[in-house]
What we know:
By secondary structure, the protein is of the alpha+beta class.
Amino acid sequence: MSKFIQLHLLTSYAPANLNRDDLGRPKTARMGGTERLRVSSQSLKRHWRTSDIFAALFGELGERNLGIRTKRIGERFVFDKLISSGVKEEKALEWSENIQMIYGTPDEKSENGILNSELVFLSKNEEEKLSSLVNDLILYLNEKKESEIVNKLIELLNKYKKAKDKKKAKATYVKAMSEVLLDKTSSAVDIALFGRMLASSPDFNTEAACQVAHAISVHSVAVEDDYFTAVDDLNRGDTDLGAAHIGEAAFAAALFYSYVCIDKDLLIENLGGDQALASKALGALLEAAVKVSPKGKQNSFASRAYASYVLAEKGDQQPRSLSVAFLKPVTGENQAEDAIRALEQQCENFDKVYGPCADRRQSVNALTGEGSFDELKAFVAD
């Protein structure tokens, strides 16, 4: 079994605004002395893991193997449930704060103090553990029914509240409860692929098995502005001949190079040794990377695209991107064909200098109709 799987994709988008910066303009970066269009890795990963492809394979229709990333653990999983079960608001807030503390520091800007200051990624199993704790807590608060987990929670909280060294006592409380509520491995493929960080409980961090580069255009770009108007359908032009709305929207077109590297050994380890689930995750990741577009301004630009070219590599050698193939911007009228040639030539050149950089390779070329995506998917997932 090969340790590393590397994916190299070329995907062309017509005029679009896939991923916006703080000014609402397409994100860019300078590379090779020229400005390039860019889509951030955060945007790519977000759209892949929340795609219909992932939902169909790992969502609620079957055994849910997707996590949930939120700052609202104390609010949605604790406070709302306590309130709906008849617990008074004051008590519900107090216990929500106590439990929220296990998952991280509270957001000082939140009104009630039960929002986390950072996002927390939870698996389905961890949600169920938290739900079980809250159910037991409801029985304790409403009916005085004790349980082992609630007694432990109360004991640890009392020690924390009475301790002179609050920082140390809090760390003890968080560590003990984390061992009850969190898992070191997960059945959530998105957590296994993209990792998670828990600042308050670093023992339960998950190192990402998948590394994703920012997608970058293989050629230089100039971001343009679209001046547009909207017309009032009921305006007959009797008194007002102008448009009802005038605006501007930035856009650019680009052929993107995308690079993804997966450590299959780490993926299997993150999934608790489940090789079948790891293979399924790899197939889903490839399909999402090839077919799923970022959602920015889709209604305005309908910027849907499949990858025109995909090269998959497998082996135990140290991974490397092929972005150097595009340090010199691709120019001319046959950008896609020239980009494919440049990418394949750079791959060959690396092999010549360093020896084979992969044990096996397989590709598809949608421009020429060569290759089978199903066979590529089987190759990556195997």
